[in-house]
Amino acid sequence: MKRIVLGVSAGIAAYKSVLLLRLLREAGHHVDVIPTANVARFVGNATFEALSGNPVTSEVFDAVDTVNHVRLGQQADLVLVVPATADLLAKAASGLADDLLTGTLLATRAPVVMAPAMHTEMWQHPATEANVAMLRSRGVHIIEPAVGRLTGQDSGPGRLPEPEQILEQIQVHLGEAVLAGRKVLVTAGGTREPLDPVRYLGNRSSGRQGVALARAARDAGAEVTLIATHLEVPAPHGVQLIQASSALDLHEAVFAHAPGQDVLIMNAAVADFRPASIESAKIKKRDGHSAPLIELVRNPDILADVVTARDTDPLLPRLIVGFAAETGDGEGSVLDYGRAKLATKGCEMLVVNEVGAAKTFGAETNEATILFADGKAAVNAAGSKIEVARIVINQLANAI
Known about the structure:
The protein is an alpha/beta fold. The protein has 13 helices and 19 strands. It has two domains: 3-174, Rossmann fold; 183-399, Rossmann fold (3-Layer(aba) Sandwich), CATH 3.40.50. The strands form five sheets. The protein has an eight-stranded mixed beta sheet with strand order 12-11-8-13-16-17-18-19, with helices on both faces. α1 runs parallel beside α2, α4 (86-94) crosses α7 (126-137) and α9 packs across α13 (385-399). The model has no long low-confidence stretch (mean pLDDT 91).
């Protein structure tokens, strides 16, 4: 059992803190709830008291004899703030302590986790971004808001994640992380194969799924290294970031960083081919001349190369997860090609996506099937890319 302080700031998402409180209590934890004064406009103290089994107040001058604003922070194993409004983030970043919750945040030396929730414009305001960066620099773990329906007709980033998702992300702080003590190497993004100083051959990958996998592995307690090739989204905080560009760059980076890792997740979209030669000057379009012919050569198969190399190198990961972006045709379905690729690659798990102009690449959601080399029944994963990532991470945690 852990002693948890659950801070609740005044936003419409406060109702989800009630559901999180129930989950924490069902898991056997002692929970002290500290709402800010205006939370009562959304959820009453009686609800928090009934579910926590403890008295609830937002006042510094209640229970003065126990020095409440210091005692609660000192005794806590973990301090959560769910939801964390823009106002609360600003106060915490500035070190203000004008109520019981902000005083507790200053007094505690326990891990602090905040789950912001607000309208998109507020979340993306430079002041909020600066406050979040400041809190992160002090070691506060910020749970990224979800993308979805907000108050009224608005939709976008700023939605509080579901309580079950928040609980998953705090497992590492509760000593229940499924990948605690493990090292995970993730590749993400799409490679670019240069034609000349200006142009390249590339693909539609945004890197969103790979970044989500790095986040999910980090939240599961792993020490994560992310090799990024041209991401359209920022890399998650709390991971080691390595940059790569082409397939050859990625091949070199993987073999440089894979030794000593427990798991390798090969999510990057790697070009199968590259130009046989790279022009030193921009290829010109000239009147009266035909279009240039570009000769292609095969790129190395990074996934297959690592699987082969570990037969003689005990430092390479024992668990390797591949990704296959497939389209069906007259000769086979997406899963047919996926199963064939699993057999030829030799990895332990293969996550198969059906891709297309409007599927997977660049989208916020994903649908995938996880195949296992040991014959275990396939697992379907669908939802937002972070939800799919968590399913993949839980499956590989069971396989280690």
